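Reading a protein record of the kind used here takes only a little practice. The record below shows the convention in full.

——
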Amino acid sequence: MIKTMVWFLIFLSFVEFQPSSNLNDPVYKNENRTCSFYDPDTIIFNTAIPSPLAIVGDLQQTSFLETLIKREQNDFERKEIVQAIRKENPAGLILLGDAVFNGSDKNDWKFFDELIQQIKKANIPIYPVLGNHEYWGRNSNALNNAYIRFPILNPAASGQHWYSEIFGALALIFLDSNKDEMSDEDWDNQKEWFESAVNYFNADPEVKGILIFLHHPPYTNSTVTGDEYEIQKAFLNTFNNSTKTLAMVSGHAHTYERFCINNKMFIVSGGGGGPRVTLNRGKNCHPDLCTIPSPRPFNYLLLNQNEDGIIITVKGVDKGCTDFYTIEEFALNFISSSLVNLKESHLH
């Protein structure tokens, strides 16, 4: 409880409440010219793998203390998101961290268990990463609560919190981005493991693309959090130098963002129900390829794969609504890791 209160006071010290951005703001008209764009009609996608992967971040409830400063409580929208994901019948569900507000609180985990009950009943595999809230409270208690639900994260079984999976022609790499909660030795071991894993998949002819999943975003325009420089220092050199890495996908910032930096895609999808944030605007911000105003819709991602690449569809829903719509859809080509814009829709 003491740790939670300390974190909350720190949180209050830097929260800024800013008005929603405007579609006409010049920052939303920027494009990162380091990306290579292709005509969608020149790339033919098939349905080699019919079931997509679903990806969602930051399902945690808003705490009572947060409600006192008028932060959103989004229990309704959170449940709608999980129901929508279940209806997609995905081949797997990737959780980008912060499944609960307080990792030590059994009631928080009870709510989470009830929330994803339909996912488990459908035997949909879940691939999690640890968020900062999974460490809240007493670390040993908090992590044990996570291990019970996600044995793949338990070092007693694997020796580490990071792991990889193969999905069709994709290698999926899952990292623990909570440097402040890890020893220097563990952080360095993860960094070395990541470099070895990327090199291994680079040399594997059966792997055509690599995706990285972690909680903290290396880049964000959030008014509440900021760029994670430790992530940039530890992982981006290896990520950027690989010819197979397609995207780095994170949560933490309760919004949706998409950046193309050094011809690599960075996606922030933290719209699973945590209180949404507004985004900084202006010339010093990262050029965001998503152009809708903030706070942005609640969201989850669908990742479809075929022999030529992957298509990521961003599904959104507005506050108090049940009708989901496509925020945007884009493709990444296996060979050149280049971006193809397929479709973008405006807010309803």
User: Anything to note?
Assistant: The chain has nine helices and 13 strands. The radius of gyration is 19 Å. The first helix runs from residue 2 to 14. The chain has one domain: 2-344.
